[in-house]
Amino acid sequence: MTAGNDNNITKNSNVKGFYDQSSFIKDIIDGMYDWVRVLDRDNNIIYLNKAMAEGLGDYPIGKKCYNVLGKDEPCDNCISRQTVFEGHPHEKEEIINGRIFSVMSSPVKDESGNIVAVVEVLRDVTHMKQLYKKILQQNKKLKSDLNIARKLQCSLLPKELLKDKIDFAFLYKPCEALGGDFLDIFEVDSNHVGIYIADVSGHGVSASMLTIFLRSSIDKKTLSPAEALVKLYKEFSNQGFAKDLYITVFYAIIDLENGKMVYSNAGHNVSPIVFNKERFEVLRVPGLPISNWVENAEYTDICTTLQKGDRLFLYTDGIIELKNNSNEQFGEERLLKILLSDLSVPSIVLNRIVESACSFADIEDSSSIADDITVALLEIK
Questions:
Q1: Residue 282's CB: how many other CB atoms inside 10 A?
Q2: pTM passes above 0.90
Q3: In 3-state terms, what secondary structure has residue 177?
Q4: Domain edges within the chain
Q5: Which helix (H) or strand (E) segment is 52 a member of?
Q6: What is the fold of 158-380?
Q7: How does the average pLDDT of the chain come out, rounded?
């Protein structure tokens, strides 16, 4: 910086008292919150800024840098010595008077490029380290809580039942610790089985709480899925949930005596199917998601008949929306091709579908999926 440039800086900034370049730079460094010191090649302190001098309580100019730390010998991890030898900056952490400092050491070179000194900038990171420690502790507690919540959510998933009349299997793979997909199958009475699959907006804790609301609020006594969905809609609206929260539900009730199945849909965007070797039926029926978008919602009951050997397949859109490197979705066609060609027991079929979808999307571990995956397959015996 030339004297002329220095005068310009002084004039333009309306700062008085900077008579030369060195005093200008010194005032800048003394105004820094960080500690700054300069060491010669023999580790002697040749300069301290005001913040460091006040922090140490005296002006140890001429002392060895390690003496200030209460040591009689150079530090084993002396970054200033490394900077002198290697000619580039180094960084470490150091404890001084019970405080933690981040230390950055940089070389000072003369006009010929020779290293003549080292400048160290020390930043007090004690508070940041304390906060980081608290964050780690909170994360550890949060992970523990999430694991408990995950176990609780999984404990609410279907259990084995009525093995003599149906064969049922499902796969439930949330994309996070807690999922927004849910399904359940249960005995309504001695002759009827209820089954539903749901997809909640979003993922994580808030979505999982809605799945618990769903399971605790849905009417499992009525033989009309549409009636149960109307009651569920009213209960959801009464809770005052935000308008961006909603649940899509497909709900069916099967009469195991005569094979009649009544079903209704609350906005579930992937339609379940009923099929066997000679039959294929898509269970489409419109309906508004469980939400508070309108004051009242209406749902319709549709009836179909299931025969021995018929299979009911239910799923959420996470499986068909898996994409490969070409941004191509796995899609319904690939899913149905496996489903209709594999006559294995339901559990084997579902595993094959999920493995095929993950392979298509080049996902080695299904725990790294972008959306929840839930699939279920029921067979009438």
A1: 10
A2: no
A3: coil
A4: 31-124, 158-380
A5: helix 50-56
A6: Phosphatase 2c; domain 1 (3.60.40)
A7: 86
